[in-house]
Amino acid sequence: MASLSIIYALSDSIGETAEMVARATASQFDSNEIDIIRIPYINSIDQIAETVTEAAKHTCIICHTLVSPHLREALLEYASKHNIVTVDIMGPMIKAVQKLSSKEPKLKPGLIHKLDQEYFKRVEAVEFAVKYDDGKNPWGLLKADIVLIGVSRTSKTPLSMYLAHKKLKVANVPLVPEVPPPEELFSVPPEKIVGLVIDQFKLNEIRAERLKTLGLAPNASYANLDRITEEMEYAKKIIRKLGCQVVDVSNKAIEETANKILEISSKNRK
What we know:
Blueprint: E1 6-10, H1 16-26, E2 35-39, H2 45-55, E3 60-64, H3 69-81, E4 85-88, H4 91-101, H5 111-131, E5 146-150, H6 156-164, E6 170-174, E7 193-197, H7 200-213, H8 225-242, E8 245-248, H9 254-269
Helix pairs in contact: 2-3, 5-6, 6-9, 7-8
């Protein structure tokens, strides 16, 4: 191994993959004798030429994750002139998947990191929905993209989670006559609030079924029609006071209601 001193890790993106492979390889040998130099964001043939000219001064190999065809060709050409071995990390895999799928690759650098950003936005939104579910912490209302309000069993929590997977930060607040809504709710712009309403007879069915699954009597006050009517009147009063949008969730699937809320959110952003 004394003859190998440097692994150059080249990329037209940030170069993490190339460096990771280089370090994983070096770990199989005496890695203290191997330097790894990452050179990211290569976007021109001039950079290729300069890098290879510098590399030629040392005993080295070059590994890369260049996806641009003309940059890969340039690297092969310049490296060949200097008798430098190159290792194409992504090329064989891209060709294999291309053959398997019969589809053309995008060949755009940095796509994995764009995907990562989308993933982390989704995770952040899900964590937000969990943290600010069911009025747990009113401070979250002012940070939310959308605030859902409604009586119990109007699908506030499942809607919050569904919308979180669309990368929206959603908080929700239950409306109960005996418990005044948090003051912070009245500081949220009305266009960010969606009031969920439901037919009282449908809600009666849903709550009665919920009580059965819990092993409780279906005629408890939670499912009492008079109680439900009282709750719905209270909720509508709060909704009118806030001046927010209203969505009727009666006989609607979560996806259908969520799409309606997404439409409202999209119009508000415009």
